[in-house]
Every structure is written in structure tokens, then in C-alpha cells.
């Protein structure tokens, strides 16, 4: 498996103005793609609204949430469009870890019945590529099967669960379509 990524949980501080975010306050979280890593940033709503038009294209996913109260359990809901967007933005990635993330996202989307497995192609080097389409679309998505074992899938799922809570270890992922 490739490099492991540590995605930070909510910082509780706006990345622009440095103000402490208060419990129950709405904020915006953004996941940015760096050359060999991912970075999460949290923003108060006014700073996000001022920053949003100047995004540099490295933002893979954005979601709104509220700052939890201390000791409060995290809600386990992620919008399907957010997962689909993250999946599509990772298309064409060559980095092994990003390929692993995309594969596990494909499994999550299949489990949610949003991504449909059409067939598999073997490349001359023996690599397996799954040809898939999103429900309601004819666009073909090629997903490299990195042949991860259950433990590797669980590790990637755990890291995704830190970013997208609905995809964590409780997602009950299966390797075969």
C-alpha cells in the first residue's frame, strides 16, 4: 500500500482569521489536494465567503457542519454528492494512495447503489481496471483495482472516515462487485 495520510479532525480555529470557532457554530471544511498529501482546513462562514471565489483548484471537497459541543458524538452523515465529487476529482490520479482512496470510494458508492459495475478489463501488464458508471449516467469511469486485502481496505476506510464520516470502518465494505 502507498503512503498513509493523516487528515486532521476539526481544528476549532478558522484557517484565515484565526478566530476560535464556538460550539454549535456553523463552519465550512475544505479538503485540499497537495502534491503528495491531503490537507483539511476549517473556515468561519464569513472568511469562507470572502475566500471562495479565489480557490486555486486544489480543493477536492467542501462541506458545511457545526462545531460539536465538547464530549458530543459526531453525526454520521455525508452528502452523496460530496462522495461522488471526491471520487470524480481523484480520476486520473497516479499516486498509489490516491488510487486506493478512489477504489474504496468506488466500493462505498457501489454499496450505496450510486455506482454500477459494468465489466472488468485487464491491461497488458495484468492490472485490473473496473469500468463503471454512475446511476443515471452513461459516462464511463475507470477504476484501478489495487488488489487490496481486507486490512488495507479497512485502513483506507479509516482514513476516509476521518474525512467523510459515512465511509468509516462501519461502512461494511466488500471487495468484489
Unreliably modeled segments: 1-5, 165-177
The overall pLDDT, averaged over residues, is: 77
The main sheet orders its strands as 2-1-3
- Which term fits the overall shape? elongated
Task: Write up this protein.
Helix 2 packs antiparallel against helix 3. It contains 4 helices and 6 strands, in the order ββαβααβββα. Residues 1-5 and 165-177 have low confidence and may be disordered. The protein has a domain at 80-170. The strands form 2 sheets. A 3-stranded antiparallel sheet has the order 2-1-3. A 3-stranded antiparallel sheet has the order 4-5-6, covered by helices on one side. Strand 5 (128-134) and strand 6 (140-145) form a beta hairpin. With 177 residues, it is an alpha+beta fold. The chain has helices at residues 45-51, 80-89, 96-111, 150-163, and strands spanning 26-34, 37-44, 59-66, 115-122, 128-134, 140-145. Helices cover 27% and strands 26% of the residues. It is elongated and about 55 Å long.
